[in-house]
Amino acid sequence: MKTTPINRQTITRTLLEYLWMIVGMFIYSFGWLACIMPANTLGGGAAGLALLFYHVTGLPIGALTLIINGILLLFGGMIVGWNFGMKTIFCILMLSVSMTVLQPFLATITPAGETLFALNPVSDRILLVILGGIIAGAGISICFRQGGSTGGTDIIAMIINKYKTISYGRILITVDSMIILSSLFVSDMGVDSVIYGFVVTAVMGYTVDMVQAGNQQSSQIFVFTHRYEAMANEIITSTRHSATILDAMGWYSKEGIKVVLVVCRKRETSQMLKMVRNIDPDAFISVGSVMGVYGKGFEALNKI
After folding, report:
1. Closest by Cα among 129, 133, 132, 134 to 192
2. Of 20, 136, 137, 216, which residue is most buried, by most CB within 10 angstroms?
3. pLDDT tens digit string along 53-108?
4. For the chain, what are the domain ranges?
5. The overall pTM is greater than 0.85
């Protein structure tokens, strides 16, 4: 059996991954405790469910998060199998720790026994909701990039897919919606809390997508030109990219033509188009967006 040698570089990379997951979970927890919670609304996932039970029981958020994820892990292990990664378990534990550590700093207890948060919603409730979604989304995306996960509704999706083939995204949307709608049964919440809850979920999801793909989004440019040699030489000479020449045939003219294919960062697209225009103003160009490019000159494969 072939084993991967453990060296200093591997240990350092692994430690950095776990360090970033810790940072991500503290950012995620800050978004919930400092913004979403004071706005008196919920979100999806285990954190949203923990916040729902907090309004009912008054127990610490960190403990509730750990209990909920622990129960889901137990059921998931018995039904689907104990194939949860160490990073997922680590993130679940750190989520509970970070919420437990941060909650006393972000809230004080009034003499009446009510929780008075450092950030008061009042007229800025929508701003708190949007800011909380952005912060929490950025935190969780940091964990995703290191291969971690916060469990929660992901485990529910795994259990359901064990018996029924349903879209993973549809399961998550349904479960998160049920959690948010449950706030209607909490005495100090109402319809407005449901609306803000869906805003939190939307902003968080959009932020995760942007952070996950933001630095990997690239342009894939196809240039149909008879001056393909000059085009390819100029790309290699004046940019840090190379080019690939493809054979093609125009079906209308039945004439063969060469296609220059080049992949570059979004910010370099304009430079590429100007270069094509200078070499062959009659070239036909197609520009498409790609979510991620991996390899030399782009995202390293070992960082996935």
Report:
1. 129
2. 136
3. 888 888 888 899 999 988 888 888 788 776 667 888 898 899 999 999 998 887 54
4. 8-214, 218-303
5. no
